[in-house]
Amino acid sequence: MMDAVAPSVCVFDVNETLLDIEFLAPLFQRLFGDRNALREWFGQLVLYSEAITLSGPYTPFFALGQGVLKMLGAIHKVTIAEADVDELRARMLTMPAHADVAAGLRQLNDAGFRLVTLTNSPPDPQTSPLKHAGIDAWFEKSFSVDRVRRFKPAPQVYHMVAEELGVPPAAICMVAAHVWDTLGAQSIGCSGALIARPGNALLPVHGVPQPQVVAPDLPEAATQMIRLWR
């Protein structure tokens, strides 16, 4: 019997896990009179990204996000101008990192974990959101689902990362603020770490894989991961 493989690679989701999507809220406050419309938009964006993956077509995440904004405008009878669409794109590319991120990344790096990112967002030739947020230097590689034209949590996405890094899925821990992301990674044999940022929580359903690590922020998650696997 082979020895179990402990996770040695932390694969980070980007939007909301590392970068603060509340940076988008002023746009939704201005358009809809309610900053919480951001959460409706983001939930619909995730829903339709998954629907697109299940049904077969593909369109980049930013383009889909802009389309979902127009869809919400039609639902709420709010006019969405092209300038609003442009502002959404600009804000999506320039979100700041959460205040706890750098400290947590330092803990994991010092403990010897490899750090990479995996995002639904396509690469942008002009702007790197991670670089803009000042955290790109922590990561050895950044992956986008654009490579396989499937959105998370499709298994092909996580297999792509494992194959590119030359490690078995068991060597990976998917670190995300969303259970749908940790579920996708766990479906191919990875571990999961949930950063339960505001608006996110565990899914307590019997038979649904639970992440091995649950924490309110990245430093606490890092502490648990080091205790478990280092």
Features:
alpha/beta, Rossmann fold, DNA polymerase, domain 1, 2 domains, six-stranded parallel sheet
Structure description:
The longest helix is centred in the N-terminal third of the chain and has 19 residues, at 37-55. Strands 3-2-1-4-5-6 form a six-stranded parallel β-sheet, with helices on both faces. The chain has 230 residues and is α/β, with parallel strands linked by helices. It contains nine helices and six strands. α2 (37-55) crosses α3 and α5 packs parallel to α9. The protein has two domains: 9-19 and 95-229, HAD superfamily/HAD-like (Rossmann fold, 3-Layer(aba) Sandwich), CATH 3.40.50; 21-93, Putative phosphatase, domain 2 (DNA polymerase, domain 1), CATH 1.10.150.
Topology at a glance:
Layout: E1 9-12, H1 25-32, H2 37-55, H3 61-76, H4 82-93, H5 101-110, E2 114-119, H6 129-132, E3 141-144, H7 155-165, E4 172-176, H8 179-186, E5 191-195, E6 213-215, H9 218-229
Helix pairs in contact: 2-3, 3-4, 5-9
Q: What's the total count of β strands?
A: 6
Which CATH class of the largest domain is shown? Answer: Alpha Beta
Order of helices and strands: EHHHHHEHEHEHEEH
| Shape, principal axes of CA atoms | globular
In CATH, the homologous superfamily of the largest domain goes by the name HAD superfamily/HAD-like
Number of helices: 9
Low-confidence stretches: none
Largest sheet: 6 strands, parallel
Walk across the major sheet and give the strand order: 3-2-1-4-5-6
Rg, nearest Å: 17 Å
Query: Structural class, from secondary structure content?
Result: alpha/beta
Helix content: 40-55%
Query: What fold name goes in the CATH topology slot of the largest domain?
Result: Rossmann fold
